[in-house]
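PROTEIN ENTRY
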Amino acid sequence: MDNSWIFSLLLTIHILVTIAIIGLILMQHGKGADMGAAFGSGASGSLFGASGSANFLSRTTAILATIFFSTSLALAYVASEKPKSPSSVMENQTITLPEQNQNQQNQQNQQTTMPSQNKADVVPE
């Protein structure tokens, strides 16, 4: 079974959810932002602001975080089910030795069988 399209689909969803989570987190109003109001303007009733029920952004972030976690697990499972590839580039290669040229073989044979014609090789008697 070819899982490449499933892997591609999960990876696309994973990347889109990641971008959405980053955007939602950057848009949210931090709890520490109300600290200045607690020390002077009196707009906040407590030190870190009202901790009421979760608003739309925090609930959406929690849902996207759950989807992110699920796609992470699914990607890990699909990647582990892929067929194992060779661990080395040379693992499944056949070795072919280059054949010597016929002329080179003939020259080597002539050099080993013919007596030396050099005068320096002749030993005087």
Summary: The CA atoms of residues 2 and 82 lie 8 Å apart. Confidence is low (pLDDT under 50) at residues 42-48. The helical segments are 4-27, 35-41, 56-80, 102-113. The two ends are 85 Å apart (CA to CA).
